[in-house]
Amino acid sequence: MRWRGEESGGLLSGWAAIAYLACGCREMTGPIPLIPTGIVMAISVSCACGKRLGAPDEMAGKQAKCPACKAVVMLPDLLEVLEDEAAEAVEVTVDATPQIAPAQTALDRRLSGDAVAANPGNVRVDYLFAWGHNPRGTLGVLAFGMVCLGLAVWGFTIGDTLLACGLLLLGAVTLGACGWSWYAFGRLMIHGYANPAVVVDAARGLVAVMTDLDSGLGEKHWVVKIIQVPLARMTGAPAEDGMRLGTVGSYMGHAGLGHWQTFEPWLVNLLTRDKKTIRAVLGSFPASDWARLEAGLAEVPTPHEKGQWRVLEAAEKA
User: What is the pLDDT of residues 118-138, one digit of tens each?
Assistant: First the structure.
């Protein structure tokens, strides 16, 4: 086992490892104290208090205690750590590769307004996972539909067939519309346009997303939209300011004006638990996309708040 020193850049002696295990890891029945990242360990985690901490690979899958706030932190499994490290290495060496989505059906073309994304999201939505982040709207619709069906049964029991049939139809249509909307959303996340995003305020869940609202006439219309999302629930490492993320967007407005008026980005990490899908979306963005996002974000007023801003107008005119 080898540990690497961040400041010295060399390998720590095996005696340092033995000393740490002797002092901190003898008692396995309770949380194990973590080491601040002055020394880079095999496992690196962030505590809720914001402190970045390191731990040796023997602690994978165990509970540990933050030395700063004394909170208990759950460490990832070693296999997960190795997969993340391998993915990061691939991202550094492999050029961006646009996503390839399945051929659009007639329904897909209708949902997208006959637009074809140059870099489609190709995200298969984990419906239960995605629904769990914002269940209120769907729960309300489902509750209304179920109440209608319950009242329909009551109508049949009292002999009011006309009322019962009306309620039965209303309940069935409501539940059908709910299921249809989720199906259509899933198709949009496959064929919708993937856009780069960056966390601008992890504490408040603010994420900045950049896209070109050009509707196909070749007139660039760059905007940055800041959205608020439950970052604590997303798949992957704890969110930090500056963390890069991927989104899939749907566009709204009148295409005949030369550009869409707005778009609705959806964070990939909140749509699926599949890390390969998340990495594929991130790997589809070239370095120029990230540089453009950084330049556009520099034109957005601070402190950051939710909203949409037109950016890079000077570059467009040039």
Answer: 788 889 999 888 888 777 778
